[in-house]
Description:
This protein is an alpha/beta fold. The protein has helices at 12-27, 41-45, 57-60, 63-69, 75-100, 112-120, 144-154, 158-172, 179-183, 248-258, 293-297, 309-317, 329-340, 358-370, 372-388, 391-404, and strands at residues 3-7, 31-36, 50-53, 104-108, 124-129, 189-192, 209-211, 235-239, 264-268, 285-288, 302-305, 322-324, 344-346. Helix content is 44%, strand content 14%.
Amino acid sequence: MGKTLFFNIPATGHINPSIGVVKELMQRGEQVLYVNTEDMRPQIESIGAAFIPYPGARVIGDIDGLMARASGGNIPQNALALHQIGAALLPFCLDLIDREQPDYVLVDSLAAWGKHAARLRGVKAISSISTFVLTPGSPLPLTPTLIAETVGQLIPTLPGFAGTWLQMKRRYGIHIGGPLGAVMSLADMNLVYTSREFQPAAETLDGTYRFVGASIAARPQSVEFPFDKLTRKPLIYISLGTINNQNLDFYRQCFAALGDYPAQVVLSARKKTDLKALEPIPANFLVRNFVPQLDILERADLFITHGGMNSVHEGLWYGVPMVVIPQQLEQSIVATRTAQMGAGIALATKPPIGQVTAAELRAAVETVFKDVENYRRAARGLGDSLRAAGGATQAAEAILAFAQAS
């Protein structure tokens, strides 16, 4: 029996793809110690893995503030925050490896601190990539506006990058790299939770990348949902994911676009949204703070999504055509690829990213339903490619083969 430490970040889109893999490893006798922030303890312990919390503010400072700055649309700021988190967490990670003596380490591609600690201690590291691998062939929505905006965002972060780079170099001899080294931290082997068919420019990636498809496991639900109220067809499901979801203006645009559309619409507004602030809600809308996404996607005819990789994979898994409205740069890449592959329509992928009108949304929905069988066929084909890649079983086999190789 082997032992592994899994360093991840507190984001559902990065945790969910790992759940099936962790279960599969434990079924094969592996001991998995899952490291994350304290608020993720219930989700991790629910699958039977041992949980280890990252140290709190008294030990390493404002980790929650840094985590908050590591998400959102400002890529240079996100990357700097991730590097700063890594500098703060590295002593803890080194001590944890010394104490637990893992046979190998699993690290999320945004949790570079786990990889750095593993390499300093001579332990094999495997990266868990829940996004597309960024390559020169990635469909970046480059425009003069976006380039100028990114440069403008980068300049204020340069002193922070320089300070963190020098700190890590002098103390540990580590070259942390620039923004890309924080948001796409690669290791000795890289598990990619998508298929080669869906990954842009997959032919440029070498054998260190193992495409294992989506790892979608049933998730325990603690909130009841009124499935008996789903009485109309077609069924449209709307969700902006777990991070950038308090967008009341967007939800109202959905009401304006689809309030008189001959369909039933389920909208997941997430727990922090005040539903009373959205009233009046159209009669054909069912709006909840919590929606069991997999159960709804099994029934849905169209998915209006922010383009998070996890959500798009789940839509493809169930063969659901999509209208993708990204809220940040990474999601615009997923949106563009989804449209390229014929599984949906991408809106607002260039700056200002995510800004659509009710008329544009209505037109996209009507376009999909006019040719829904072709969109559904493409989505099902990509879903089949995700299954064929092997999922959690293939991921566990690849991990163990790599870990046990001399």
